[in-house]
Amino acid sequence: MRRTLPSTASLSVFEVAARHQSYTKAADELALTQSAVFRQIAGLEALLGVKLFQRHRRGVVLTDAGRVYAQQVRSRLDEIERDALTVMARGGQGGTLEIAVVPTFATKWLIPRLPSFHAEHPDVDVHLRVSTRPFLFDDTPFDAAIHAGQQAWPGTQGLPLMPEHLLPVCSPALLGGRRGFRPKDWQHCTLLQLSTRPYAWREWFAVQGLQVEGDMAGPRLELFSMAAEAAIHGLGVALVPTFVAQQEIVAARLVALAAEPLPSGRRYLLVYPDQKASNPTLQRFAAWLQRAVDAPTAW
Which of 127, 147, 204, 216 is deepest in the core (most CB within 10 A)? Predict the structure, then answer.
């Protein structure tokens, strides 16, 4: 059976016209005539049997179907472009991995260790993109994800990397010469909240046997790295993973307010769809990642 495949030329023209919602601006960007843009889109609409634009006196506007299709086409064209750039960069040799990763883990733990992976596997490029929540791999270009949770989600396999341990930290200046926090001090400090972990402080205080009024109050930040930076600048006390706190504590930019970190109940996992389990490039990355986690300096 013959496939229903629009030409890449018509899809490229449609994507530009959809982005501008203007045939004239699309023609200018693509160095085409307005009539050439119109013909490409008219041919695409005829192939699909669906109107992608509504015409009116002031120009064109996307239909509901056109808006959805434009998002899908833009995503596919981005993938094709990435594939082309990869082939160009590697001359057809080696491999690539598209990894979704939680941002603070990427910047504070993974990226500092990636040079050793590239030293072992110079023929592999690792592309990182931020994703903070589970997703359907079929709808993305990702080969795998590094996710903070309790287990892999349905249709995937998971390689456990490390448990997450949280440590309360603040600027040395915030202590005002004290050696640490007494239980009553928690009642008077600003708690930096993580928007994705609204109960983190309450859970930490419960383990400590403390009840702190307003334990969910305080400035809300999206990332652990933002909370750590806010603590460094004296905005309050942050509760962050040990791999975020360690370097700052060594540099005396932060001090720990507890003798030992406590497990959060989450762990970091390398998650990948079942059909990627035998991917040799992914297998090499997973093996290296496990060695990096097991190294004495992993924390």
Answer: 147
Pairing of strands 144-149, 238-241: unpaired
Taking the C-alpha atoms of residue 236 and residue 215, their distance in angstroms, rounded to an integer, is 13
- Report residue 171 CA to chain centroid gap: 28
53-56/220-221 β-pairing: unpaired
- Which 8-state DSSP code applies to residue 237? B
Residue with tokens 């769809």: 273
Two structure tokens written together for 283: 């297998």
Q: Name every residue whose Cβ is closer than 8 Å to that of residue 16 and which is 6 or more positions away in sequence.
A: 25, 26, 29, 30
Provide the pLDDT for residue 299.
46
- DSSP, collapsed to helix, strand or coil, labels residue 269 as strand
Predicted confidence at residue 92, as pLDDT, reads: 47
pTM, two decimals, is 0.67
Range 221-227 contact pairs with CB under 8 angstroms and sequence separation of 24 or more: 221/192, 221/193, 221/194, 221/195, 222/194, 222/195, 222/196, 223/103, 223/104, 223/194, 224/104, 224/108, 224/194, 225/103, 225/104, 225/107, 225/108, 227/192, 227/194
Compute the distance between CA of residue 214 and CA of residue 47 in angstroms, rounded to an integer: 60
C-alpha distances out from residue 272 to 52, 114, 134, 195, 283, Å: 35, 19, 11, 26, 11
d(CA 5, CA 182): 68
Answer yes or no: are the C-beta atoms of 205 and 183 closer than 8 Å. Answer: no
